[in-house]
Every structure is written in C-alpha cells, then in structure tokens.
Amino acid sequence: MTPPPERPGPSPATMVSFVLLAVLALLLLAPLVLGSPPPSPFLIAGLLLVRLGVQVYRAQSDPRLKRPASWALDLLLIGLLLYVASNRPAA
What we know:
Elements: H1 12-34, H2 41-61, H3 68-86
C-alpha cells in the first residue's frame, strides 16, 4: 500500500495574509482586554489595504481566489475608516 501524496503547505502570500489578520486582531482586541487606547484608524486602514493587495496578488496565480465583491467590501471598509479618522478631533 502506498502512502497518500503529501499536500503542499500554504504559499508565502497566504502566510502573509494570515499574519496580517493576526496583527489586526491583536490591535483591535488589545484595547478591549487591556483597557489601552484604541489603535489609530490610519494604522488599521493601512494594514487592511496591505492585506487587500496581498489578496489581489494571490488571485493572480489562482483564479478561484478572485472575489471582486469581497474586494469592494474591503475598499468600502477602508474608506469608512479613513472618513472616520479624518473627521476625528485632534487630540
């Protein structure tokens, strides 16, 4: 009996995407758990924009990952974050 073929591991772009999600989760959960001040909306929007770029890059190699509706929702969320950040009173 032959062993089943090994499945390839996640690509480096997938790992980068997961790391970005983990960093975002830590930045957003830390104020709730520790009572620290919330992170800058510009930082969150920047990390989401980088993650969107990684998603588009991954979709270039795998057509199954092309999800324009998801990308549009990400861009809407980034736009809302930047809108809130620009209307925030100066500290």
